[in-house]
Design goal:
The structure is a homotetramer. Chain A contains 16 helices and 14 strands. By secondary structure, the first copy, chain A, is α+β, with helices and mostly antiparallel strands. In chain A, strands 2-1-10-11-7-6 form a six-stranded mixed sheet, with no helix packed on it. A four-stranded mixed sheet of chain A has the order 5-8-9-12. In chain A, strands 3-4 form a two-stranded antiparallel ribbon.
Amino acid sequence: MRTGKEYIDSLRKRNIKVYVKGQLLNSEEVVDHPFIRGHVNSAALTFELAHDPAYEELMTVKSHLTGKKINRFTHIHHSVDDLIKKVKMLRMISQKTGTCYQRCVGFDAMNALYSTTFEMDAKLGTTYHEKMKKFLQYVQDNDIMVAGAMTDPKGDRSLRPGQQADPDMFVHIVEKNDKGIVIRGAKAHMTGMVNSHEMLIMPTMGMSEEDKDYAVCCALPVDAPGVLHIFGRQTNDDRKCEGEIDQGNAQYGIVGGECLTVLENVFVPWERVFMCGEVEFSGMLVERFACYHRQNYGGCKGGVSDVVIGATAVMADISGYGKAAHVKEKINEMIHLTETLYACSIACSAEGKPTAAGSYYVDPLLANVGKHNVTRLIYDIDRLAQDVGGGLTATLPSESDLNNPDIGKYVDKYFKGVASVPTEDRLRIARLIENMTGGTALVESMHGAGSPQAQKVMYSKLSNLESKKKMALHIAGIKPKAVEQPPATKGK
Amino acid sequence: MRTGKEYIDSLRKRNIKVYVKGQLLNSEEVVDHPFIRGHVNSAALTFELAHDPAYEELMTVKSHLTGKKINRFTHIHHSVDDLIKKVKMLRMISQKTGTCYQRCVGFDAMNALYSTTFEMDAKLGTTYHEKMKKFLQYVQDNDIMVAGAMTDPKGDRSLRPGQQADPDMFVHIVEKNDKGIVIRGAKAHMTGMVNSHEMLIMPTMGMSEEDKDYAVCCALPVDAPGVLHIFGRQTNDDRKCEGEIDQGNAQYGIVGGECLTVLENVFVPWERVFMCGEVEFSGMLVERFACYHRQNYGGCKGGVSDVVIGATAVMADISGYGKAAHVKEKINEMIHLTETLYACSIACSAEGKPTAAGSYYVDPLLANVGKHNVTRLIYDIDRLAQDVGGGLTATLPSESDLNNPDIGKYVDKYFKGVASVPTEDRLRIARLIENMTGGTALVESMHGAGSPQAQKVMYSKLSNLESKKKMALHIAGIKPKAVEQPPATKGK
Amino acid sequence: MRTGKEYIDSLRKRNIKVYVKGQLLNSEEVVDHPFIRGHVNSAALTFELAHDPAYEELMTVKSHLTGKKINRFTHIHHSVDDLIKKVKMLRMISQKTGTCYQRCVGFDAMNALYSTTFEMDAKLGTTYHEKMKKFLQYVQDNDIMVAGAMTDPKGDRSLRPGQQADPDMFVHIVEKNDKGIVIRGAKAHMTGMVNSHEMLIMPTMGMSEEDKDYAVCCALPVDAPGVLHIFGRQTNDDRKCEGEIDQGNAQYGIVGGECLTVLENVFVPWERVFMCGEVEFSGMLVERFACYHRQNYGGCKGGVSDVVIGATAVMADISGYGKAAHVKEKINEMIHLTETLYACSIACSAEGKPTAAGSYYVDPLLANVGKHNVTRLIYDIDRLAQDVGGGLTATLPSESDLNNPDIGKYVDKYFKGVASVPTEDRLRIARLIENMTGGTALVESMHGAGSPQAQKVMYSKLSNLESKKKMALHIAGIKPKAVEQPPATKGK
Amino acid sequence: MRTGKEYIDSLRKRNIKVYVKGQLLNSEEVVDHPFIRGHVNSAALTFELAHDPAYEELMTVKSHLTGKKINRFTHIHHSVDDLIKKVKMLRMISQKTGTCYQRCVGFDAMNALYSTTFEMDAKLGTTYHEKMKKFLQYVQDNDIMVAGAMTDPKGDRSLRPGQQADPDMFVHIVEKNDKGIVIRGAKAHMTGMVNSHEMLIMPTMGMSEEDKDYAVCCALPVDAPGVLHIFGRQTNDDRKCEGEIDQGNAQYGIVGGECLTVLENVFVPWERVFMCGEVEFSGMLVERFACYHRQNYGGCKGGVSDVVIGATAVMADISGYGKAAHVKEKINEMIHLTETLYACSIACSAEGKPTAAGSYYVDPLLANVGKHNVTRLIYDIDRLAQDVGGGLTATLPSESDLNNPDIGKYVDKYFKGVASVPTEDRLRIARLIENMTGGTALVESMHGAGSPQAQKVMYSKLSNLESKKKMALHIAGIKPKAVEQPPATKGK
């Protein structure tokens, strides 16, 4: 298993093309760019903590392929315990970073692909599962960081892939030959991509027969020829080029460092192709990935919210209102909401079941319920943090003002809370709250792992409404026959 | 294990004093009183389903005392799996009854007492645990229904037990002799009491040294000399004395059939006394009972909500608006909320841990989180049911109108929805929604297992806020020392 | 203007057919039936208070037709001040009754009809407005209580009136002759109908050409030949046949005493016909009525909520927890929600505008916003009342238990709160909270004046979304042309 | 009345000391600094629109002092109509700027001071009111922009001003002489201060006798000797130094351009001193200012939300999902919430009453209700905007990427929505949503005009809970005497 340092060093050896604010970065120095460094640091923790005996049980596991001790982020879940440990690992790391460390996306993609290729092969006689296992062993043996790559740009959302004015709005196969395939398109919102080794391309939704060329799944290096990455802006990203305090979380940054990854006729050899036109399995792959990924949010956002709660409580203490009844009530409410999120992640794990391939899959309904709660409750948690945190997160002067010889004394004097605590500490906590509760951080809770409607759509499918109707009929003393299927009505 | 019928027959043999609306019931016929019969029916299901092979795994278990197969409601949890099965059992039964079946209260009381007496004995050298095990074996061998009895009337809530104008506002010991103790007071909101065999008295809160006589825990038959029960009113209880339709759920009723149980100098022999003045363990007993009991609510209310969802969906279908987008969205929202409750119960079970006695205890923080969500989300679920269900639940004529030879035809004609479904079926569903979403049913979700503040109080204790503060300080780059403990401030 | 007593006496002179629980009542004694008496009492206050000098300004006004002083409930609004006074009058009466007094429905119907007939005549050359004014003068001169009658049974909601299997699911004209018209069908959820003098029939929605016979508006006595009324059940209605305490609000009851009114080939003379097939004006009439009626809810429910808040605060005081911080916070939240409702009613009145007829119409968007808030916030208010009110509202014994010579002493002893307050007072407050926060009362807040979706539908129409889009384009620096109307997309 | 250009020109003539990010700006160029220019532009609109005939009625009014036509922002309200026009004016300007234009703060301060000085003089025999009127006439005649300056740094919130370790945590009088007073301290979160002409200093809370020197109210130029301003950071402020698109709202910016204003022994002549130690009137002044200021939020945030709604709807349209049912429902919900805010502002204005001075004051309870709703509903509105707006607001590349010759084509290609709309327009709308829904904008809705608890505290005072209790007692049939005042209880 790599250490954090080895991971960072390995990234320097890539020949990756990354653009930030219109500039192509030097490939070796990508990890050092101020916009990117924090994301690298947080991802590095997923390597480093695997060497910490205190976290051995959460961070490492024995490979079912090789029997070797591996980093859990490269593991295929083989028990309910694995699923639960994943959630606990995520919460623990988030408590240290206060932000995303990105590595779950590839982790989830590999788990989704593992069982899907097994079932695909069983039904269609293909050989994807063996190829996938070889890729997996490569990932495990070399402690590879894999970026899961699902979301396409999608263009006009009312049109299917093949109906778009521009055929590249979804990644698709433009050529097949005896060595492999050539793909074209782009993947948007790519978390951790610029500091990964490999990417795992997946279709963005269930495809129908007419969109066969869009049903493609494959793995390739992030620096393969034809690949380039355009780094996205984040809230207050420019502050990363200045001092430390105003960043709020100077070491780890915010969210996952997303980019647009452009695939300009990229070649992928057959041994890394795991789906190629099997449209009937595209939906299964998407759904499994989505559910594994939605499982995470009560873990990682739970941990992030722990930090928000802590920061809020510290701000109250050092401003002199930590003992006010309404403040304590608000902090308790933040705890309530945070643990509700966590409960959903634990529950969908505890209710996990084995797949045909022997790997374990979360309860899909509860995984969706958890993510859907994240799209709401994080907003409430952050609202309460901003309430208790005070208006200063919106009006604090800059770090340069604090350092200015003429006016630094005023900043120091007038932003002090209780007399015993240095003003700089209060500024730091205010900036941390600012960093964690606005802009990019909120939007990620909304749209990461699927926007709210994506979960709601699953409820209709997963909740077995018909059986609930029968329960009601039974208790109401109604014979099911008469009511069950009222004939289709005419009219509007 | 008793069958449902054997359970009901056994109740007739009691010499119990129950008053309903000012009338003392004939002891043998208590189970037949229209106000009580539904609660008996639902409790009987907890016996009957234990004999159904389909539910054997959920409903039965091997006694850790005797190795015999017992009804799970008399079991002491000995694994996470036991805790999870409890939740699933509760949801399943609720889906059949649409209401409370009461037996979890005694179940939870016995589990709380089991580990508490063990720890009490270990610390104080008492012998309560062995006595408790004997009582437990009696319960298991005879498939006894035990009513958990915790809530005292409490009088003036700003005063402690010993400060009350009337010393009986909390149950207390008035005499001790060589055979046993004599207690006096009352227990309020006693769920399932009038159709139980035994009651298990517990203190209602942690007691301090000055309230030593109030720290009492013991078991006694519900028909012991000096005991009488005054049955509480429920929403629309008088309809139970008329026809079937207007009741909504004529077979199982609503909530748990609560009563006030008066204890007028009641003797309890020493072998049934499990706490007698050990004030330092009263808080532990209360907290364990509360957490076991709060664990349930995502199970039982989850199942109840399944029925509400089903009834709502049926009403939409048979009224012709089942396919409207906003209706489907509302039903999906009800599913979302219901599964959120369920997730909390599963999660606190999955995170259960062994006690010193070897029995398993739920995660107390998550158990509280679950119950607290019930105090809110059930109101949202029921609001949506009333929204989709339509105004007719508030204005439907009576069953007698439907049966009236002159006007029955109008009721039948004008309350019809889609033409193919009999009007009576629509009335039945409307009455079921009415029954399940108003009055008593709502209040029970609020106050059963403790009112909202009871959970909030636990958050401060259980959530380890100090560790969260340290996380925030670390990420904000602040040295903990300076901030951690600001000196006490003066002034208000 | 009639006094309350004169109003009640006048009701005895009707020859009305009312069925309650399958029994046809003696016409003279309708007002004395326990199910009905409370509603009569609250309606009587709308007459009685007009003679109280303290309320003269709110309750009375000068008729624009005759210049005479009239009861405001028979007035046509002629200023913003009239609209605001209406809201204040409603809140004031609700504070005295704690429930509905029904008379606003006919009040709103007359106001809607007044301006609609004026515009109908102007466009179509009909003479409805003059006829309507004659009816109005009759109402004003005789202080008539008019029931507004809009909601049809509607059968299969996915079908239009003419598509229903049974043509009577919406009231329609079955015959026209030189004396008048004959109508047939029913009106559901008729508030205050059984204690009114006249009813004003309106169509339930905008009609299209094919449903011409359903576009009918007319006035007729509630005891006209062919009319019969089937009284609806309410939560705990049977308690009205017993003592006083358990009713909660023995004098005024709960909600408005709704019934199903059956119209079996009822003749209406031409002078009382105000719409007869003019489908293009049916939508206008419905919308105006709906908006006038939705205006009320922040007034009447505001006043009702004042009583709920007061009852909750009293319960807290007399139980000893009135000073707890979380209780005070909850009561403040109830106040916040109540005043939000009131603000909407005041605002839609303050923004009222004159119609072509010279009468004043509320701001329709804000009126809908107010009612929509009622469908949510009342549930929150009542949830908080049940929270603070305590579990006893769900488990209190009956009044007969309190009066029983053997056990009355226990009820008195164990339901006491602070020592100085008689237990009976605590029971009364608990019963009032029970009465006001469950069942029928909730459903009425949801569906009275239109269910939530009815308001949401209006938003699309009334909020001028296109202008908001232009504002955003302007600020974003986008030329409107390119974006404004993206061409229709193909596909799903 | 000044035009917008005249206003900006006048600002250049000040000798003001403003620091931005550690740099002292050239006084003449303060208005041109990229961090400040947007705020100047939006404030300039408050001058410019007064010359637009379309807005004459909203923007201008006749001075009650001179009879001359003045800008409404310098007016003292003299009718309900004035109060309502203020709200409509604010909503209208916000719809044009999408952000704060700052001028209401001084407007509200002057109105609060007008009636308070009148009552102070009446009671104490002081002559503040005449001096205030002279200041007011100066403001009206010269169309002065006045910054209201209330919030002190406050230090340790558990201590009163005089108890602080540093006596300057609240502005206080350090010297009085025959020409005037000398004050010292700072004012935080000063909206619009750096582009105002004058500031109006007020105490931040009701003072007690021991804090006499802190009860000070006075007016002084923003560039008076001893005054300096440290400009606060906002979300993404650095983007203002780059291109236009990434700013979202390049012309008007975000919120109000807040600063810390330091007062280092500043002299104020007696003719500009309006309170000097009269502690008993400090609370009245604070409360009046707070209520006038809270009145605004449904107007200005209503208009801001109109722009958010419009931007959200445009994004949906140009991405191809504008017709999806769930999207339309969410936009309707945003409308509902926005109009609820507006209704509160209209209502507190419509219920306005004359003060002793003849000026009009809003209904204080409803004004607080409105602001309190803003602290919640804006978060919901913005959450929905981020939901419908899509994840791209968190991951969009920079404007420089769009302009890069190598990769601009990819940004253009892959961020396109429906084919007919230029990608740049979609980027602009996304950036506008980003700008308006995160960070500073949210915090301002929370804390501007007082944090949530500030309103809740007022509810207890303003809502007349005692009268509500009496209503409940009356309806419950309880004699008030017994219950009204339970004797004080002992114990905790």
